[in-house]
Amino acid sequence: MGRKPRIQFEGGVYHIVQRGNNKEYIFKNDDVKKQLLNIIVESKEIMRFEIYGFVIMDNHYHIVIRSHEVPISQIMHRIDLKFSKYYNCTYNKSGHVFQDRYKGILVKDDKYLLSLIRYVHQNPVKAKMCKKVSDYYWSSDSYYRKNIQDKIVDIDFVLCMFSENRKNALVEYSKFMDSTLLEESAEFEEVSIIGEVKPTSIDIPIIKTERKTLDKILYEVVGDDRIFDEIKRGSRKRELTHYKMLYIEKAIQSNYKMKEIGLNIGISQVAVHKLNNLQ
């Protein structure tokens, strides 16, 4: 029987699980775990996706990822291929490093995202490698608790689900992650689509899913009626470039496509891409 085709679409969020071949402990030391993160960062810069959560265990890893223009299959092919080459070269091995097919599970709705991230962060607790989510170093949990927005984890989208006030969001995030409730693998790993099985969690917070409009994002960036109007009219004045770059950055963080971002201020998708790469 042939394999079921993967469900993929632009802008989709996926729970990725990739295991070592024959459940081997391929992430047996910190250097190997660090190399995987380096490859993810490098791939992110080239393929323009977002990471909302991750954990690297000793024999497998989880990533919560949102793809954009590049399909998830191409993203994972690049990450796993580059890591496999590194691993085989470093340890003088050959052959498969990972199981032949990663598990990629579509998240049906963003309202399931927080429980999914908690499930990912709870992996070391369930494996009895630590007592609390915050005790484990090789996960995205510390990026959220310390309010670190860097090249690996995109924390803004998730924290804004708790509150637009960052201080309050950090408090609510920690409270949610520190719950003694353990998420079930049946809901986040043993399904084809996350959201078809209703989560058993009883403390899922109310999630704010409305996005700011592109015009609101632009005005928050410029804070001036004259500059706002000039950008909206498509002015190419050099003094406006900085504002356009900030607007594009904020709009991408709010999960708008480059085509939408460009249409809103009268520039092409290619121009949006070029301005974004200047940052």
Give the tally of structural domains.
2
Q: What is the general shape?
A: globular
Head-to-tail CA distance between termini: 48 Å
CATH fourth-tier homologous superfamily of the largest domain: Transposase IS200-like
Q: At the third CATH level, what is the topology name of the largest domain?
A: Alpha-Beta Plaits
Q: Tell me the major beta sheet.
A: 5 strands, mixed
Gyration radius, rounded: 20 Å
Structural class: alpha+beta
Number of strands: 5
Element order: H for helix, E for strand: EHEEHEHHHHHEHHHHH
Fraction of residues in helix: 40-55%
Mean pLDDT: 87
**CATH architecture descriptor of the largest domain:** 2-Layer Sandwich
The amount of beta strand, in percent, is 5-15%
Q: State the low-pLDDT regions, or none.
A: none
State the strand order across the main sheet. Answer: 2-3-1-4-5
CATH class of the largest domain: Alpha Beta
How many helices? The count is: 12
Protein name: REP element-mobilizing transposase RayT
Pfam family, one: Y1_Tnp
Domain Transposase IS200-like: 9-123
InterPro entries: Transposase_17, Transposase_17_sf
